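Question: Now follow the chain.
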Amino acid sequence: MRTVLLTGFEPFDQSPVNSSWEAVRQLDGVLLMDDVRVVVEQLPCAFATAGVCLKALLDEHRPQMVIATGLAPGRSEMSIERVAINLNDARIPDNLGEQPIDTPVVPGGPAAYFSTLPIKAMVQALREAGIPASVSQTAGTFVCNQVFYSLQHALAGSTVRSGFIHVPPLPEQATRTVSGQPLLALAAQVEGLRMAVLTAWNTRVDIAQTGGQIS
């Protein structure tokens, strides 16, 4: 049985829930096909432990593909991340009360890593299903980016494809985001993640389609 590892985060910043975890846990044990199973795990929202936990999960599950997910409070759509940067710069303390400023994720590591997932094909599949989605050019500088960078660093040079998806808050957390757009219900987020994972698994070469931004 081949494995896709899917991770979400515990709640943070005094919120009782984290939509990334609420969504991914619905997919635990799902079969993408007869010999491909999704395994779901929760990561701590803490700089000191998230990367360590992720590395242990990679060693435990030996997955053929990994997609980490996290909550983006100000967004209203599924954001397929393009790049992780080697920088921690926390706007707020993490769940252990730590707030690193201008520190590297991996000392001496590359400035950045790109996702090895077919990010534009994933966005297209979600949009065709009526689920708002876009390519994102920044995963921030909080624990989400740290996990994304740590993931790509750990798997660099391997055949395991990996990347990161940001999901919006749930409607019960707020009716709209700062952009003024309505939020995605949990069922839509779950289906969006399922489709994104399936598309990533089945697509080896990404499509040539615009996904850039002017600013």
Remarks:
- The radius of gyration is 16 Å.
